[in-house]
Amino acid sequence: MAQKKSADMSAADMTIEQQVYDDEPGLLSAFFAAFGEPVVYVTRTMKELNSLFFITLKYVIAGKRRPAEVIAQMHEIGNRSVVFIAVTLGFLGMILIYQAGFQAMKITGDLTLLGALFLQLLMREFGPTITALMIATRVGTGMAAEIGSMVVTDQVDAMKMCAAEPIEYLVVPRFIASTIMVVILTILAVLISYLVGSLTAYTAFDVNFRTYFDLSFISAFDVGIGLTKALAYGMTIPIIACHAGLNVFGGSEGVGRATTQSVVNASLAVVVIDFIISGLGYVLLALL
User: Domain residue spans in the chain?
Assistant: First the structure.
């Protein structure tokens, strides 16, 4: 009797173990789950960002005009970023000119095209892209944290209950201000970096200012592609930052996640947009 009871218990244990084993996902299922989760997340996020962008454009065109709020955001995004951008791009200009001049002296010894090539590189790539990355770091985190704090304290829900659209009141002023100020900051960054580079070239390599300030390599294409990138970055950063803030959950910990997500996604978007616009620009230039 005891042996039969023991055998029944062993069979029951084996049945439970077999059921647990059958319930565990296989290696192939685990692989597709691990691969599919980020794909689903990216697809959903891109869809939400696209929807937020077009809703924001709708309110920019047909919504209420709030110039005071736009000016306040322009001050926050632009004026308070001037020193940060100037210092960053100034040191970048010094470093790039010194490295380029040092390499040119070792290879050819000719520095007559140093300023012309540097200005072209600044306008096409470094000016708008580095400026946008700095703005995404300083301003994007602030947008995400501010809106996220409003979400966790139910201020956004209160706006909805009062028939006020959060996108119109929170996203649109930041979108307009960022679009304008990133373009202006990009122009300022190019000028500062180029001027600091001229001082470095004169001090380190005795390059004459007349030789350095050579605009012969600059064309309308260079100016156009640089401004196009700045405009695209200015519209992208607030959309990504505000999206991260509006989707906060979990209290203060969620606000921290939103700020991190804002920086990572905005920086990645800047790099991807840089690649797309540069590729399309060179294809268009080849066709012309």
Answer: 30-287
